């Protein structure tokens, strides 16, 4: 085993923690808790069970089960064998499920009983795993083909002792599928050193007395972020299966949580809730938040949390940008962490000047800290790593002081009447309206060429807003060329299985049901000319 593996591979760190602090609470939920030594022993017993079912180093194992303690135990048990967990989003069904099953070509699967129905007809014709461990109890017909069903509970075997080391930090630990917002999902080969490098920048802000509250789905990088952060810092991981606005602060108090990671619209939902006399009655000391709320100071004041840190990450990288606790403003996603080189480049990979928006490309001084390529997709791997830099597909700007600012996804940018529009910046202004919970800005075809702008909006429960009122709100806040022509309201925006808005779908839907600002402004009987 390579020397660095002891320090960079999660399950080796856990084995050490199990000796140093055996009785310290490690994984806790409302109805269950495991100490460091108990978690390590449980992982070892599962590892024996997987090996008995024929799983060996390099095998893929599909995992479709709820987020929780057992999900973590399964991942780490497979890691001890050198096998790769392939987590499946619990929203997948039909074609999306079949595509991932076919692509992973797995030896085995662990499937929660409540998801079994999706594994029957939708994956017909796809080669399926030989064995399926049913989480929550086996029974009934085989989910697909001739797969043998076993009870997940029967996998726990052996005496819980540590197996001989089987992996090094250079080996892959999982295949994590991307969201597929601009195309089909790709399987990212996610290595052990990559997982450690993702969590270490967060762990540097915590210690063994911290309790990290985790509610992100465990089928994406939220798992290594939270699990690794706690493991490296020696703290405790408190887990809820899914994020809940109404239960968030109750859980924080119940678990004694001191830290958490808030993403996407989660901070906005917390601030939209009615003020409560207990808002500041919580132990949160450090919140990682991406992106930052526009009025981050108000958030800090209301909830009494002064240490807010922002960051930039993607499945293919490992927290390359992060702020300190002293935020420069409410927009920057930070600076490159030590050991990371970050450039902003044009379409020819030439570096642009500060203040100019371009694509973010990355390198790591230490090897193995980024992804190991896309699973069975050498063409996309070569495209992403052209000129020996990882191309993120994100439009970013760096100011003269070296702070980085996310602007948009490269393929989401809009060009309207000679001006480039950042959909991210437009969306930020739309979301500044107190009634708006979520929104997406997309390009739709214009009869004059280039693009017109459509915003699709969902409101907070109980809120009301009409299209003209939204435009009136935006006009004094935006350049004229950014003011949307079309506005569409929906109860909920379409999402990828990792919670990202499916802009491809919104673009494809066109303007059939959208409110048209120019049509509303035109006198009756007049046509609409260029403006």
Layout of secondary structure:
Elements: H1 5-8, H2 10-20, E1 25-29, E2 32-35, H3 36-52, E3 60-64, H4 69-81, E4 84-87, H5 94-104, E5 108-112, E6 131-135, E7 148-151, E8 172-177, E9 187-191, H6 192-203, E10 211-214, H7 222-233, E11 236-239, H8 248-255, E12 259-263, H9 266-272, E13 286-290, H10 296-303, E14 307-309, E15 311-312, E16 321-322, E17 335-336, E18 340-345, E19 358-364, H11 378-384, E20 390-398, E21 404-409, E22 414-416, E23 419-421, H12 423-430, E24 436-445, E25 451-459, H13 467-474, E26 486-489, H14 503-508, E27 515-516, H15 517-521
Helix pairs in contact: 2-3, 3-4, 6-7
Report on the structure:
This protein has 531 residues and is an alpha/beta fold. The chain folds into three domains: 5-195, Rossmann fold; 331-412, Luciferase, domain 3 (Roll); 413-521, ANL, C-terminal domain (GMP Synthetase, Chain A, domain 3), CATH 3.30.300. The protein contains 15 helices and 27 strands. The protein has a seven-stranded mixed sheet, sandwiched between helices. The protein has a five-stranded parallel sheet with strand order 4-3-5-6-7, with helices on one face. Helix 3 packs across helix 4 and helix 6 (192-203) packs across helix 7. The longest helix is centred in the N-terminal third of the chain and has 17 residues, at 36-52. It is globular and about 80 Å long.
């Amino acid at each position: 085993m390579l020397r660095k593996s002891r320090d960079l591979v999660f399950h080796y760190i856990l084995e050490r923690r199990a000796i140093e602090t055996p009785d310290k609470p490690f994984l806790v939920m409302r109805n269950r808790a495991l100490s460091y030594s108990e978690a390590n022993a449980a992982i070892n017993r599962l590892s024996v069970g997987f090996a008995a079912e024929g799983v060996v180093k390099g095998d893929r194992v599909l995992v479709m089960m709820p987020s929780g303690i057992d999900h973590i135990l399964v991942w780490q048990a497979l890691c001890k064998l050198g096998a790769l967990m392939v987590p499946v989003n619990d929203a997948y069904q039909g074609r999306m499920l079949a595509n991932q099953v076919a692509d992973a070509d797995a030896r085995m699967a662990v499937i929660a009983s409540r998801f079994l129905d999706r594994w029957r007809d939708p994956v017909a014709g796809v080669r399926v795993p030989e064995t399926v461990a049913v989480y929550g109890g086996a029974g009934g017909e085989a989910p697909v083909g001739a797969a043998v069903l076993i009870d997940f509970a029967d996998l726990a075997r052996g005496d819980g002792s540590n197996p001989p080391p089987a992996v090094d930090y250079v080996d892959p630990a999982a295949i994590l599928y991307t969201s597929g917002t601009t195309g089909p999902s790709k399987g990212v080969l996610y290595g052990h050193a990559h997982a450690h490098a993702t969590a270490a920048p967060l762990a540097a802000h915590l210690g063994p007395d911290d309790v990290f509250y985790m509610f992100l789905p465990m089928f994406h990088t939220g798992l290594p972020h939270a699990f690794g952060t706690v493991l490296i810092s020696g703290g405790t991981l408190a887990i809820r299966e899914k994020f809940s606005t109404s239960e968030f602060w109750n859980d924080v108090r119940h678990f004694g949580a001191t830290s958490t990671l808030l993403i996407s619209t989660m901070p906005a939902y917390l601030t939209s809730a009615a003020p409560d006399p207990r808002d500041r009655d919580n132990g949160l000391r450090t919140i990682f938040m991406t992106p930052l709320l526009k009025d981050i100071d108000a958030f800090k004041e209301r909830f009494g949390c002064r240490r807010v840190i922002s960051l930039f990450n993607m499945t293919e990288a490992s927290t390359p940008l992060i702020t300190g606790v002293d935020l420069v403003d409410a927009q920057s996603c930070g600076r490159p962490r030590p050991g990371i080189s970050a450039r902003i480049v044009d379409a020819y990979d030439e570096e642009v000047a500060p203040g100019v928006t371009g694509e973010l490309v990355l390198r790591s001084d230490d090897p193995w800290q980024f992804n190991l390529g896309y699973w069975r997709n050498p063409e996309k791997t070569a495209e992403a790593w052209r000129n020996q830099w990882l191309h993120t597909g994100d439009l970013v700007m760096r100011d003269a002081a070296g702070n980085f600012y996310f602007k948009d996804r490269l393929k989401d940018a809009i060009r309207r009447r000679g001006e480039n529009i950042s959909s991210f910046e437009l969306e930020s202004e739309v979301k500044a309206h107190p009634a708006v919970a979520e929104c997406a800005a997309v390009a739709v075809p214009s009869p004059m060429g280039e693009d017109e702008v459509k915003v699709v909006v969902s409101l907070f429960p109980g809120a009301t807003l009409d299209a003209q009122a939204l435009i009136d709100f935006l006009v004094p806040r935006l350049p004229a060329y950014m003011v949307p022509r079309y506005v569409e309201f929906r109860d909920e925006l379409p999402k990828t299985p990792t919670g990202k808005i499916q802009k491809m779908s919104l673009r494809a839907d066109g303007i059939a049901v959208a409110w048209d600002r120019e049509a509303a402004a035109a006198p009756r009987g007049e046509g609409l000319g260029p403006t």
